[in-house]
Structures are given as structure tokens and as C-alpha cells.
Amino acid sequence: MSQAVGFGVASPMKLSTSASRHMSVKFNGLSRSFVCVSSQSESQDIEKSRSLSFSPLDNKTNAVRSSQSFLCNPVEKRGAVGDRIYAAGTVAYDTFSGTAAESQSNTAEEKIGVLLLNLGGPDTLNDVQPFLYNLFADPDIIRLPRLFRFLQRPLAQLISTLRAPKSKEGYASIGGGSPLRKITDEQAESLKLALEEKEVPVNVYVGMRYWYPFTEEAVEQIKKDKITKLVVLPLYPQFSISTTGSSVRVLQNMFREDPYLSRMPVSIIKSWYQREGYIQSMADLIEKELETFTNPDEVMIFFSAHGVPVSYVTDAGDPYKDQMEECIHLIMQELKRRGVANDHTLAYQSRVGPVQWLQPYTDKVLVELGERGVKSLLAVPVSFVSEHIETLEEIDMEYRELALESGIENWGRVPALNCTPSFISDLADAVIEALPSATAMNTTPMNSSVEDDSDQDPITYVFKFLLGSVLAFLLLLSPKMVKALKGNLL
Fold this sequence. Notes:
The protein is α/β, with parallel strands linked by helices. The protein is about 40% helix and about 20% strand.
């Protein structure tokens, strides 16, 4: 179940029934019950998961707690006409006062949209460098102090140019492009069908952060279809400022500047890693894959999650690490209930650059497990719900080869959830549970991962300015940067 909270943010979790009140909304004549929970009566589980934190990001402690997640779809392929829903009223929930307000409009006609947001990926090898540029030009990916943000695009151009050859090799090895768009389209279609089966017809849109179809394209289609209520759902189970947070920032900017969008009721689902349907679907896949081993009880379950720089957690308050660890705990608890008591471990993959990332690192842990005598290992890509380069190439090829070289004899890998029916059905339930909380989007600018210099002492401020100026001068004069800039301008 998803709790309805203020600012149109729906946060899925288990709720204390003693603190809830029931409200009903009619979809096509069918009554559906929803539970609204007072913020003064939250259960300990809610407090532990910090899922109720939603205030605008105005300091490092709250930096990520108020952020939100979403979904969108390739608008040019689908061209949905838009199904209509007749609602008995629109429900908004105020977590500050703990009261629910229901506006009666029995004749109001609503068109509900679901926006799925994802990372995106290059469709062809020619798309790799511009895709990487879009990625590294995001200030939530490459964090620069305010004084040096003028370096964001030149730095993105340099990094993308340098990394493109190796990245092209990776994409070439999995077919010449990313399958992420195709799979996300299929997930969108499956979600639409699942909601229709639950008597909630919707339009589903897909919007990617760094490649086509961009979030902006999806939002434009939402306006053209005259959607009147929107649920934004992330395809990132756990929240991070570099994924959900970045996408929320883009949406906030778009909604702030558009009169139509600024009035649209929106419910943004935050991290949903703790939903029962997701946990059970992951356990199903793991249990099934364990059966392929000769001795399933001896297999080490190896969770490999995408990493983030440590500074995101320590400086910007990113809850990603905590949520990931809790997610693994919930999955293992579900497996234990089924009689699966295998050893397990968690590591982080895909680190980039010289900065410190979340540890332990996947590649190092694989070597250590081999040295310890582990012979059978089952890799689980826990932060991904779609197959893409980090599962198909990094895990299936690079890490598999490393594991076998390190002495691990039996290797297996749990597939991504993709369109697993139980997973899609649970996402549909999350959408339905989020609808009552839809309100005009809070467009107060998020305090993203971008560092704020306002609280720094003058000496630190001057030092960073001088250091940044020197680095900028050297960077802009480097041969590779000159070549990259020339190629970008011509």
C-alpha cells in the first residue's frame, strides 16, 4: 500500500491500521478504498525507512528525503488517445495537519496519466558520445561548487569524448546499443494493461533523463493529451539524488514555468524498494535461479548495486546506501521465510573517476570471495529493473570473467525484473494507491547534490575559487579539450 502524503508525493510502505482512515474514489462506477494515515501516528517501520520525509530540500540533512521518483514513455511510438476516468472527487492529504480534504465534483471528468522516468541509453554506437555528454553535463552527476559550474559543459564534453571509445566497445558487445528504451516501452505497455485490468484506465508515458525520448517530450505529450491528473513513478527502486533526485529537479523546473502543468494534480512516488510485491518478485527470481545450481544451498547470493560517490551520502544526505541495505535485508528475510538460508553479500559496481565511491567494490569482492574458497555464486543486480549495459556487459561479461579467474567455478545471474507479471501488478497497485494524494506539484527548487557555497568560510571560498580557476585554465588549454570543443562546435 502507498501512503498519501503532502505535496503530491506518495510513499509506499506498510501502515499502521490504527492510524488510518478510509476514503473512497470511484473509477468508472467502481468504488475503490484508499487509506489515509495521520502523520502523527506513523508506525516505527515508517520512521525507520524515513519514507515520510518530504519537506523541500533546504539543508543537507533533508537533501534527499523530500525528493521524488517517476516514469515516462516514448511518446512518438505510442500515441495514446487517452482513456477517461469519472471520479467522485479528488482527494488531497495534508501531512502537516493530519487531515484529509475531499473536493466533491461528481461530474468532473478526469484523464489520468502515469509518467515513467528512466535513465535512457544510446540506441546506436553513434549515440554513445552525445548520450555520455548529457549524462556528465547533469550537475547531479558531476558535482561542482557554484563558482565552477561554468565548467560543467566543457568538462562533460571532455569526459564524454575520452570515455566514448571504451563505452562503444561495451555497447557493441551487447548488440550495438542499449535495450533500455525497448524494455521500458514494454514495461509501460504492461503497466497500462495491468491498470486497465484493475478498472483504472490511464495513459502511460515514458521519459528518459539522458536520451530519447527525453522527459521534456513526454511532458509535452501529456499536455497535448490534456491529462488532468498525473502519477509520476520512478523505475529506480531506491532513491538517489543522481537518479530520482535529478529527474525530479527537471520536472519541477518544467512545472514551475508552465501555467497548465503548475495547476495539474501530481503524485510522485518516492522509492518503492520496500513494497511487498517488489520484494516477493525479487525473491521469486532468486529462488528460481538457485535451482539451476547442482548444490543450491552452497551458493553465495551476491547483490551488486550501482554505486554513488561517498560524498553524496556524507555531504548531501543521499539515503541510497541506507535504502539499499534495507532492501537487501527485506529480500533475504523473504527468502528465509521460504526456507532459503544462503549466505549473501552486497557490493557496489560502476564507479567512475578518482573520487571515493560506496564500498565494498564489486570487482574487489569477487576476488576476495574466490580467495576465501567460494565456488558457487549467484549475482543479483538489485538496483536495476531492466536489462542494460551494466547487467548485460559489466556483470555478465566483465564480472563473470573476473569471478572465474578468481576461483569461482559456478556462476549464475538473476535476470532483471523487466515485465515480470507480479512486479508490474505491484507497480499498478502503487499507482492506484498514489492517486488520492495528487496535488499541485511543489516547485520549490530542490537542494540537489550540487554543492552550495553559502555556508563556507571566506578562506575556503577563496581557495576553491583560485584552485578552480587554475584547473579551468589548464583544462581549457589541454589538447584533448581543444579537440573536443572544436568537434562540438563544427
